[in-house]
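Tip: read the tokens left to right.
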């Protein structure tokens, strides 16, 4: 009964207009007074932020804060795929015949995740990593590799939560939620960076100006509340680090694995 009630409440709160209302409040000056409470509630490392708490004009501005220079180390090796975010890994493994298996008990197809893009064919036997950002985390998304942005796509959708409850008990949230997809081509293959919106995320935004040539560690986009990034590597192009598994906490810039040139 409790699970049914929570699911019903979640279905209601997934409506985009409700998420937009909460987003507008977070962008207002009235939300500024909640910044210290928000930071304390989630144990945010405010000493890493580029500005002091009182310098942020709204909760949203604080939430999408940049970090002081040097707070994250970007793995500089040419073959390394760096984590685009601070996150918890909630899914990782080989893609089997176009299917991403057992992300919190649910399977997804690459076809639905990539909105039936013709590029789906390149990822049917590739590798996937699901990276969940909690409210505690730094919420800017960086490029995991150096390369050329060959396509961007916006996929409209719902804003279901992508936390433990949402992924396990809501139906296929990673492929039903709003998404921004960026395809980056490197000399060793292509990566799809799928940014998945979530409940109370008023939007996912690209960092402007958008560039077609990117360096590893460049700012790519940001969430305006907690969400998820799914990384997809093309067939036979990615070798994960030995300890890459569900439950591993990673920081932006940290090596997730390497690309191999076939």
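Filled-in amino acids:
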């Amino acid at each position: 009964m409790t699970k049914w009630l929570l699911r019903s409440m979640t279905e209601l709160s997934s409506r985009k207009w409700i998420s937009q209302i909460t987003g507008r409040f977070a962008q207002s000056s009235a939300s500024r007074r909640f910044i210290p409470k928000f930071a304390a509630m989630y144990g945010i490392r405010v000493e890493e932020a580029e500005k002091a708490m009182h310098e942020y004009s709204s909760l949203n501005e604080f939430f999408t804060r940049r970090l002081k220079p040097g707070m994250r180390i970007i793995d500089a090796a040419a073959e390394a795929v760096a984590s685009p975010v601070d996150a918890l890994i909630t899914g990782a493994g080989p893609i089997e015949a176009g299917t991403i298996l057992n992300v919190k008990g649910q399977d997804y197809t690459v076809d639905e995740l990539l909105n039936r893009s013709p590029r789906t064919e390149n990822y049917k036997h590739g590798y996937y990593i699901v990276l969940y950002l909690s409210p505690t985390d730094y919420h800017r998304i960086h490029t995991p590799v150096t390369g050329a942005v060959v396509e961007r796509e916006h996929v409209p959708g719902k804003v279901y939560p992508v936390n433990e409850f949402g992924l396990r008990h809501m139906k296929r949230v990673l492929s039903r939620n709003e998404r921004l997809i960026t395809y980056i081509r490197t000399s060793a293959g292509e990566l799809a960076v799928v940014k998945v919106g979530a409940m109370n995320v008023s939007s996912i935004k690209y960092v402007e100006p958008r560039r077609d040539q990117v360096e590893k560690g460049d700012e790519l986009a940001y969430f305006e509340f907690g969400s998820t990034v799914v990384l997809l590597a093309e067939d036979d192009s990615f070798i994960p680090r030995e300890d890459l598994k569900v439950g591993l906490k990673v920081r932006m810039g940290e090596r997730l694995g390497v690309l191999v040139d076939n």
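The first helix runs from residue 2 to 13. Helices lie at 2-13, 16-27, 35-42, 59-63, 110-113, 164-169, 173-176.
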